[in-house]
């Protein structure tokens, strides 16, 4: 008994498993199929990647020899790895490695370059920059940054993947940014110092003016107090003149027996 299995199919092709015997014209009905020791649900199916393996048919107690089924497919899971990763400096070297899964294996890797955020729609805008699984770029220039597209190909087709190669800013650009930042910090610091000095000077002047004003006021008060003399109210004599009559006896009066009146002020 022999299992009749297509040895090579492409992914997506229809597969029909048949089983025959050495007896001419004898057809085995409803054989039991297995793949790598596991039962197969149906002898007819659309080939998938996981359908590849070794097939046997059996009619108890007989079992056929195993026949391999090879499911082929075009490249897939293509990736591009940049080494060293991240941004690279001008003048340094970099390696780009392309990897892909395919059956049969990829036999051709082609590298293309384009500058932009999305792949160009016209193939003529792509620039071919190399072949092989690894692309080496020595002494990088600013004009070489951009997207690098890897095209992996086998007999069934091709598959693409790309990676962005970024380059660090030039030393001049970094220096300019650093100087600009430092200059800004210096300007703000100087402005702050000037404002503090002006504020301190204003406060100092205000303090100097305030004691002078207070001192002047004190002197004025002092001079006013010093020049002030306490004067007691002057008692004026009564304007009314009290005239008292004092008798005055004159010797001559005694003799004459007459009296004269003398007015005096008290």
From TrEMBL:
The keyword Transmembrane helix applies. Residues 1-68, 75-171 form the Ig-like domain. The keyword Ribosomal protein does not apply. It holds the Pfam family Ig_3. SUPFAM superfamilies: Immunoglobulin. The chain crosses the membrane at residues 176-200. InterPro entries: Ig-like_dom, Ig-like_dom_sf, Ig-like_fold, Ig_sub, Ig_sub2. It comes from the Eukaryota. Keywords: Membrane, Transmembrane, Transmembrane helix. PROSITE patterns: IG_LIKE. This is Ig-like domain-containing protein. The lineage of its organism: Eukaryota, Metazoa, Chordata, Craniata, Vertebrata.
């Amino acid at each position: 008994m022999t299992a009749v299995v297509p040895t090579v199919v492409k992914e997506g092709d229809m597969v029909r498993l048949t089983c025959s015997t050495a007896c001419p014209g004898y057809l085995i009905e409803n054989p039991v199929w297995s793949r790598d020791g596991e039962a197969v649900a149906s002898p007819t199916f659309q080939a998938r990647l996981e359908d590849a393996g070794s097939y046997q048919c059996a009619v108890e107690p007989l079992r056929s020899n195993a026949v391999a089924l090879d499911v082929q497919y075009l490249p897939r899971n293509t990736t591009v790895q940049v080494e060293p990763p991240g941004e690279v400096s001008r003048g340094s070297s970099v390696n780009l490695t392309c990897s892909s899964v395919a059956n049969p294996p990829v036999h051709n890797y082609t590298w293309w370059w384009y500058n932009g955020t999305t792949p160009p729609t016209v193939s003529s805008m792509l620039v071919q920059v190399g072949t092989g699984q690894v692309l080496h770029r020595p002494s990088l220039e600013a004009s070489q940054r951009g997207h690098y597209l890897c095209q992996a190909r086998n007999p069934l087709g091709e598959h693409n993947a790309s990676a962005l190669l970024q380059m660090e800013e030039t030393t001049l650009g970094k220096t300019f940014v650093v100087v600009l930042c430092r200059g800004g910090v210096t300007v703000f610091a100087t402005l702050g110092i000037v404002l503090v000095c002006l504020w301190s000077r204003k406060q100092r002047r205000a303090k100097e003016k305030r004691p002078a004003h207070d001192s002047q006021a004190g002197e004025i008060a002092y001079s006013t107090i010093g020049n002030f003399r306490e004067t007691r109210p002057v008692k004026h004599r009564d304007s009314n003149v009290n005239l008292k009559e004092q008798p005055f006896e004159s010797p001559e009066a005694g003799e004459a027996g007459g009296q004269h009146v003398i007015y005096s002020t008290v």
